[in-house]
C-alpha cells in the first residue's frame, strides 16, 4: 500500500513537472517571438531616425554658402552706403 501511494505521488510530481516544463517552453516561445518583433521594430525606428538625420543635414553645406554669400552682400551694401555718404 505504501509503495502504491509512493508511486502515485511520484507520478503526480512528474506530471506537475512536465506541465511546468511545457508552460515554460510555451512562454519561452512567446518571448522569443515578441523579442523578434521588438527587434524588427527597433531596427525600423533606427532606420527612420537615420533618414531623418540625413535629411536634416542634407543642405548643411548649402546653408553655409548662403550664409557667407549673404554676409558678403551685406558688407558690399555697407561699403556702398559708406562710399555714398563719404564720397559726396
Would you spell out the secondary-structure blueprint of this structure?
Elements: H1 2-57, H2 60-87
Quick overview of this protein structure:
With 88 residues, this protein is an all-alpha fold. It contains two helices and no strands.
Question: What share of the residues lie within helices?
Answer: over 70%
**Low-pLDDT sequence parts:** none
* Average pLDDT figure: 87
The ordered string of helix (H) and strand (E) elements is: HH
Specify the number of helices.
2
Shape summary: rod-shaped
The overall strand count is 0
Largest sheet: none
Content of β-strand: under 5%
What is the straight-line distance between the termini?
128 Å
Rg measurement, Å: 38 Å
Describe the structure.
With 88 residues, the chain is mainly alpha-helical. The protein is built from 2 helices and no strands. The chain has helices spanning 2-57, 60-87. The radius of gyration is 38 Å and the shape is rod-shaped. It starts with a helix and ends with a helix. Keywords: Membrane, Transmembrane, Transmembrane helix.
Defining traits:
88 residues; mainly alpha; 2 helices
Amino acid at each position: 500500500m505504501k509503495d502504491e501511494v509512493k508511486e502515485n505521488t511520484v507520478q503526480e510530481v512528474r506530471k506537475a513537472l512536465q506541465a511546468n516544463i511545457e508552460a515554460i517552453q510555451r512562454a519561452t516561445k512567446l518571448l522569443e517571438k515578441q523579442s523578434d518583433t521588438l527587434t524588427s521594430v527597433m531596427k525600423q525606428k533606427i532606420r527612420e531616425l537615420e533618414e531623418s538625420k540625413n535629411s536634416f543635414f542634407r543642405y548643411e553645406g548649402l546653408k553655409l554658402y548662403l550664409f557667407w554669400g549673404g554676409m558678403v552682400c551685406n558688407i558690399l551694401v555697407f561699403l556702398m552706403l559708406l562710399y555714398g555718404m563719404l564720397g559726396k
